[in-house]
């Protein structure tokens, strides 16, 4: 519910955008005088696709996010887009695979990337889980990523139980490895060490943000918007825990 | 029978041989080749032996005289999974191809996708690299076609299935599978009744290359034959960028999904009829 709480708190007085799946919350509002579009994926117990009722990013969510972002691009006003990220996973199900959930998520990533390339500042605000394909579709194409500092805020490629099974380890072994291998960790401080976040900040009540929490996060979002100085993702390179990513690019350029 | 004897399997080739087979004779030039030993900094400390090319081959050359960069994933190393180095090789190559186009050099890209997605031993750095790959495909695709080929036998899954969905054109064979989630993970998350990972005919009927093509989720369906794949890729490169890539058709797909009765469990024929109508 964090995604919905933060969406509601930040978008007070905003105009809801209609015509989208019920699992998407989209609104045009103002942040410190700056017009912005807020987008969140939320739970929908009545979702027609049963595997996408708990906030997962599924077929309707992927294509719906694409529509919500495309709709902003068509307007041509370069209004910043704030993706509020609290996505437990992509939807796992037969209908999803059969109907091409990969294509739905591609559409969402496509739209966010095109918005960024068209000069729309895109900011990802991580208030809960940012898992795997769900995060790739909703947030990971942002110019700037901001994470709230809280044990419930985590970025990962796969849940612990599944990751342990796929890599033929116990959950305990996985956790022990994660403690010494930063990209495998589930906590936000380890993730921050990879250089992918622009900022982390603490709030007093992440589940039910106070007025002060909302004001501080709003300030941080505005600073992030003003900090956007390009249309690529190069701001994520440079951390020592991601040195190989820079090294490989340098070698490619030399040998190109 | 003659036909069968004249065919050369593409699926049986490794990543480097595949790239070489697609490029004009004598034009193959590998970047960061295995002798430079740029390997994963994360695998050995977890008891996994790294590979000198990290399972990704980047080759420049030409196809029918057109400048091309090929990124080929080696499905035999760690299931074609993408870690930091392999992911950065693909993202970096696509970024340079886009930069070429901004300078007036019309470099195109071909992605040979045999991958389970993120390498879990490098989890978040694999995921970050895949986000970079998505960004770079969308950027390059503005100028030139980015062609994805899923030949088999690994197939294309996870975050890289999203990359496949971003390509200007997607080529599949009967040996290809394309899906977001691997069958075992779906079974674990959703249960055996939802998805039986051991029922191979069932999985192929939903995610196999033929079904994807017949559902409009792939653009070309080809035999496992080097010459046919080479000719198909060449023709698509010459065709230029499509009017509207599949990943930009939200209105169409939302309308189709709205027309679906989602209550009963789904059958392959339902998907073909829903997405292709009379064409299926």
TrEMBL record, chain A:
MF annotations from Gene Ontology: ligase activity
Highest taxon of the lineage: Bacteria
Limits of the CoA carboxyltransferase C-terminal domain: 1-256
Pfam families per UniProt: MdcE
Gene Ontology biological-process entries: carbohydrate metabolic process
Name this protein carries in UniProt: Malonate decarboxylase gamma subunit
Protein species of origin: Pseudomonas trivialis
Automatic annotation (TrEMBL), chain B:
GO BP annotations, alphabetical order: carbohydrate metabolic process; fatty acid biosynthetic process; malonyl-CoA biosynthetic process
InterPro entries, per database record: AcCoA_carboxyl_beta, ClpP/crotonase-like_dom_sf, COA_CT_N, Malonate_beta
Keywords, comma-separated and alphabetical: Transferase
Annotated ranges, domain CoA carboxyltransferase N-terminal: 1-251
Any one GO MF annotation of this record: transferase activity
Name by which UniProt lists this protein: Malonate decarboxylase beta subunit
Annotated organism of origin: Pseudomonas trivialis
């Amino acid at each position: 519910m964090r995604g919905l709480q933060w969406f509601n708190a930040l978008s007070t007085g905003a105009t809801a955008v209609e015509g989208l799946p019920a699992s998407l919350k989209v609104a045009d509002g103002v942040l410190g005088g700056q017009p912005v579009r807020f987008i969140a994926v939320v739970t929908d117990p009545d979702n027609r696709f049963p595997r996408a009722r708990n906030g997962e990013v599924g077929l309707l969510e992927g294509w719906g996010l694409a529509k919500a972002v495309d709709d902003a691009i068509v307007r041509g006003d370069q209004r910043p887009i704030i993706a509020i990220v609290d996505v437990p996973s992509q939807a796992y199900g037969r209908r999803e695979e059969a109907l091409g959930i990969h294509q739905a998520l591609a559409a969402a990533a496509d739209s966010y990337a095109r918005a960024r390339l068209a000069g729309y500042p895109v900011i990802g605000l991580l208030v809960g889980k940012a898992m795997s394909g769900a995060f790739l579709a909703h947030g990971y194409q942002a110019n700037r990523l901001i994470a709230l500092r809280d044990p419930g805020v985590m970025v990962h490629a796969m849940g612990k139980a599944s990751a342990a099974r796929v890599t033929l380890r116990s959950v305990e072994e996985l956790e022990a490895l994660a403690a010494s291998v930063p990209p495998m960790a589930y906590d936000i401080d380890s993730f921050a060490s990879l250089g992918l976040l622009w900022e982390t900040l603490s709030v007093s009540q992440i589940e039910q943000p106070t007025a002060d929490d909302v004001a501080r996060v709003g300030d941080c979002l505005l600073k992030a918007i003003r900090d956007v100085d390009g249309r690529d993702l190069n701001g994520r390179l440079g951390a020592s825990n991601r040195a190989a990513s820079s090294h490989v690019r340098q070698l490619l350029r030399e040998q190109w | 029978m003659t036909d069968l004897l004249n065919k050369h399997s593409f699926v049986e080739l490794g990543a480097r041989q595949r790239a070489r087979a697609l490029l004009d004779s004598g034009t193959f030039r590998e970047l960061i080749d295995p002798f430079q030993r740029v390997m994963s900094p994360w695998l050995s400390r977890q008891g996994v032996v790294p590979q000198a090319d990290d399972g990704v081959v980047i080759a420049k050359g030409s196809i029918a005289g057109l400048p091309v960069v090929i990124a080929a994933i080696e499905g035999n190393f760690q299931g074609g999974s993408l870690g930091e180095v392999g992911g950065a090789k693909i993202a970096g190559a696509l970024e340079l191809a886009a930069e070429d186009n901004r300078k007036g050099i019309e470099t195109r890209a071909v992605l040979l996708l045999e991958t389970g997605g993120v390498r879990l031993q490098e989890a978040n750095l694999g995921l970050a690299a895949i986000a970079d790959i998505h960004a770079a495909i969308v950027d390059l695709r503005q100028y030139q076609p980015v062609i994805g080929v899923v030949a088999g036998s690994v197939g294309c899954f996870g975050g890289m299935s999203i990359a496949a969905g971003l390509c200007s054109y997607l080529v599949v064979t009967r040996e290809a599978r394309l899906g977001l989630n691997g069958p075992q993970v779906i079974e674990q998350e959703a249960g055996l009744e939802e998805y039986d990972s051991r029922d191979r005919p069932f999985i192929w009927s939903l995610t196999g290359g033929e079904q994807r093509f017949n559902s409009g989720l792939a653009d070309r369906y080809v035999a496992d034959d080097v010459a046919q794949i080479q000719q198909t890729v060449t023709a698509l490169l010459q065709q230029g960028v499509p009017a509207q890539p599949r990943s930009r058709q939200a209105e169409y797909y939302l309308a189709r999904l709205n027309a679906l009765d989602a209550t009963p469990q789904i059958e392959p024929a339902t998907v073909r009829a829903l997405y292709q109508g009379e064409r299926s």
